[in-house]
Specification:
With 239 residues, this protein is mainly alpha-helical. It is 66% helix and 4% strand. It has a 3-stranded antiparallel beta sheet with strand order 1-3-2. Strand 2 and strand 3 form a beta hairpin. The two termini are 14 Å apart.
Length: 239
């Protein structure tokens, strides 16, 4: 782990490591997920993205707009309609979307795929310990009303789930805490989602990143210095 003086520096350092470990599973599972999609006739789409949320709670289109705050509304609605046609999502009539039996079955099989992939690519690593540390950080992360984390946490963790799946999904959900802190930072600068996407490097971008790291550091206070190093170094070995 690089030399860290402030907790905000730790938040800045571990964020890309979390992203890379999370992406590693998705990339390694791509072929298996594609095969699952083809054999089941189900599009992964939102079921893959929201696999750890839909088994526990329904979501509105407004919720999805928060979760995908940088996305295209028309493209998002197209994805929703595809799931509705396939029968993996149902619209309760008021814009509330929930996973159907078919959708939940696909998610169950996704968990099996991700579990097998994590076990293969992360073999020999102390996944229970890392999952435990990530879980403590996630539990300590503030769920701001109206934010993405409040919609995505806690993640669905079925009985008997392998530690690799637990770690993978806890990291996935933890990313929404940083996303919320980043949104709060650019909103404080008076910017819109479209404007922050196009913002170039400079004083405003630097202030936003500094404010993001300051807010994103808070959940890591629950860990000791040694635990923070264990988490950083352990995740780095999963990339």
């Amino acid at each position: 782990m690089p030399k860290i003086r402030e907790l905000s520096e730790y938040a800045a350092a571990i964020a890309p490591v979390i992203d890379a470990a999370h992406v590693n599973v998705h990339a390694s599972a791509r072929r298996a997920v594609t095969e699952l999609s083809e054999t089941s006739g189900v599009s992964p789409g939102l079921l893959n993205d929201l696999r750890f949320t839909l088994p526990l709670r329904s979501l509105t289109r407004t919720d999805l707009g928060t979760i995908y705050r940088y996305g295209d509304a028309d493209g998002r609605e197209s994805g929703i309609q595809e799931h509705l046609r396939e029968g993996t999502l149902a619209d309760d009539g008021d814009g509330t979307l929930r996973a159907t039996t078919a959708g939940l079955e696909f998610i169950r099989r996704l968990y099996e795929v991700h579990g097998a992939v994590a076990e293969r690519i992360w073999a020999g690593r102390d996944l229970p310990a890392l999952a435990g540390l990530a879980g403590r950080v996630l539990d300590h992360a503030e769920r701001v009303p109206g934010g993405a984390l409040a919609l995505m946490a806690p993640p669905y963790e079925p009985a008997g789930a392998a530690p690799g799946v637990l770690l993978f999904n806890r990291l996935a959900v933890l990313r929404y805490h940083r996303a919320d802190t980043h949104a709060a930072a650019w909103q404080a600068e008076g910017l819109s989602a479209a404007e922050i996407v196009g913002l170039r490097d400079g004083p405003v971008r630097a202030r936003i990143e500094a404010a993001t790291n300051l807010r994103a550091a808070a959940p890591y206070e629950i860990l000791s210095e040694d635990e923070r190093q264990t988490l950083y170094d352990g995740l780095l070995k999963l990339i």
